[in-house]
Sequence to fold (68 residues):
Amino acid sequence: MEKGETIPNYLTKFTQCQDEIGSVGIAVLEKDMVSLALLGLPKSWHSYQDSTNGREKLPDWEQLWLVL
Fold:
């Protein structure tokens, strides 16, 4: 995530990348999208990132949008 970027814009970029990768026939798993998105969050979100990664099951992509 870039400095000053909003979280919705950040997640939209992930969706666009997934679409572009999918257009060449490569499937990106939703759980991988969630993990990568969490890794890119700014330091101020590290406690949320740690608590989410510590769960038995990660949220799905839609749930991630609702939380962030």
The two ends are 13 Å apart (CA to CA).
